[in-house]
Amino acid sequence: MAERTDTSEAEEVARIMCARVRDVMTPGPIGVDYDQSIGEAARTMRDWGIGAVLVVRDGALYGLVTDRDLVVRAVAEGKGPDEPVGPLSSSDLIGVDAGADVAVAARLMRDHAVRRLPVLQDGQATGIVSLGDLAIPGPPAAGLAAITKVTAAA
Q1: Distance, CA of 3 to chain centre
Q2: Mind listing the pLDDT tens digit for each residue in 8-46?
Q3: What's the distance, CA 48 to chain centroid?
Q4: Which of 15, 12, 23, 25 is nearest to 118 (CA)?
Q5: Which domains does the chain have, with CATH numbers?
Q6: Which residues contact 44 (CB under 8 A, 6 or more apart)?
Q7: DSSP-derived 3-state class of residue 84
Q8: How confident is the model over 74-107, as pLDDT tens digits?
Q9: Cα four-point dihedral sign 25, 27, 32, 33
Q10: Strand, helix or coil at 144?
């Protein structure tokens, strides 16, 4: 029976590593305007059940803000819920093409110590791929454990 489990896990790893980013991403990313309040961004995350939103400024993708950013960059720094969310966002975004192999996304996450990447298709954000989307079953030392270690401090 253990052999069947090993085969199933191996098949799952192969399936994930052969996939395209569009196959594993969360489609339809939610965005907020740069000037929207921290409170509005937090409520958007709560209402949609998500941990990150894209930040748009002047009609263009500007950055990404996570629930952790709200805690570390806003609450811990004494910012009020009515202050704009834009300055809290990570503006040095690294994106990945929807048609790229998931290995490309994993490498970008590792190289840039990030846990989420906007997914782009024809110059537009079409989704977000997260570290969890790339998770591979197995022991902690397998799969994307190296990325997790690198991004733990991020």
Answers
A1: 34
A2: 666 655 665 678 999 999 999 999 999 999 999 999 999
A3: 15
A4: 25
A5: 2-151 (3.10.580.10)
A6: 30, 32, 53
A7: strand
A8: 999 999 999 999 999 987 889 999 999 999 999 9
A9: positive
A10: coil
Alpha helices in the chain (DSSP H): 2-18, 21-24, 38-48, 67-69, 102-112, 145-151
Please state, in angstroms and rounded to a whole number, the distance separating the CA atoms of residues 5 and 12: 10
Task: Specify the 3-state DSSP secondary structure of 131.
Answer: helix
Q: 3-state class of 53 per DSSP?
A: strand
Rounded to an integer, what distance in angstroms lies between the CA atom of residue 122 and that of residue 91?
Answer: 20
Q: What count of other Cβ atoms lies within 10 Å of the Cβ of residue 11?
A: 10
Q: What is the pTM of this model?
A: 0.75
In angstroms, what CA-CA distances link 73 with 42, 65, 80, 92, 129? 13, 10, 11, 16, 23
Helices 2-18 and 102-112: angle between axes, nearest 10 degrees = 80
- Bridge partners (DSSP) of residue 31 are 54
Order of strands, edge to edge, in the sheet holding 96-97?
26-27, 124-130, 116-121, 96-97
Which pLDDT does position 143 carry in this prediction?
Answer: 47
Tokens of 79: 């910012």
Neighbours of 105 (CB within 10 A): 27
Please give the share of the chain, as a percent, with pLDDT higher than 70. Answer: 77
